[in-house]
Amino acid sequence: MSIERSEAENCRAGASPASRAFGNRSGCPTTARQNRGVIARYRDFLPVNDETPVISLGEGDTPLIYCPELSKRVGRGCHVFVKNEGVNPTGSFKDRGMTVAVSTAMERGARAIICASTGNTSASAAAYAARAGISCAVILPAGKIASGKLLQAFAYGAKIVAVDGNFDDALRIVRELGVEGDFVIVNSINPDRIAGQKTAAFEIVDELGEPPDFHLLPVGNAGNITAYWAGYREYHPHQRSGRLPVMIGCQAAGAAPIFHNRIIEQPETIASAMRIGNPASWKQARAAIEESRGAVDVVTDEEILAAQMWLARHEGIFVEPASAAAIAGLFKCCDSNEAVYSFRNISEGRRIVCTVTGHGLKDPDVIMQRMRELKSVPATVDDVRRAIDL
Ligand SMILES: Cc1ncc(COP(=O)(O)O)c(C=O)c1O
Questions:
Q1: Which domain holds residue 281?
Q2: Is 9 found in the same domain as 85?
Q3: Does pTM surpass 0.85?
Q4: Can you tell me which atom of ligand 1 is nearest the CA of 222?
Q5: What is the chain's mean pLDDT, rounded?
Q6: What mean pLDDT comes out for the span 215-239?
């Protein structure tokens, strides 16, 4: 379907013919770097065509950071990389899928999008809706959203509705509202979200030259593990080695339906982004784990918080608690007799990627509770030197 727009709308949607001539789908001279973004980079692998207005904030192309201290923890000459998705435009991996979901929604003439969220989807949906000039409704479990994420949804102008229930209740309501046709659902039950999120796997293969041997990531609604596995398989014919990674999903101990193989009615964890008892992509996640000969394991809240601090202090990467579950999972694979997948006997020199999914500043409350009160000292060099106490 072709859509007629004003020049200003074309700028926003990035669809002018002039820009195509420069290989840049934005006609707006002030967005010269608009050729960034996952649609621009991986268009041939995504459900878009020349008529799709590209709604992008320059997402993707996130750093794959070599981590010497994590590598030492694993030992055996292994190399650990962290894929830092917290540096996406709204601070989480959701932006990769949201650019595709909102772009295709615009192509279909959508006027409003809707999502249930543990926080990051709402921030991302709100931002991309603002960029597209359409409305966004976000349905959240009341009192369960990290303050930074709620603030983002508000700042981007979403209509926020808090429900007395958990994420699973919110998603049930969104599914019903989606059927009525007033909104396009942009949760990961929308296949365009998964399609966009696959691009993180493409980037890893492009950067390493082949897939890693192991890939660890946090699992909540299970969209991301589904997307990575789809991405690695789809990119398979395009890469040299023909190898696929072992996928290891990390769930919080109090919210681990896939690990326990049963719905958790009252999921609980400090990692609010993963507080989900009945994941939408459960079956696909199971398939990813089985086909890759991987595993799903659990990590406790204490392990998550310890891993969050460790990563910040040893590698300089500050992530939100859900993201730290991947690091806690890595430590468990290395150190614990109870690990479902042990790294103690893996071959030398293996390459391991951990995806950290969201920025640490999104959930400041967790860290604030652990910070000592900051007392002031007199403004003299001597007092300050004494206070530094190094
Ligand atoms: C920061 C963060 N990490 C992990 C997850 C879990 O991802 P998925 O629901 O795709 O399994 C989420 C989901 O909201 C998230 O926001």
A1: 64-91+193-369
A2: no
A3: yes
A4: 11
A5: 91
A6: 93
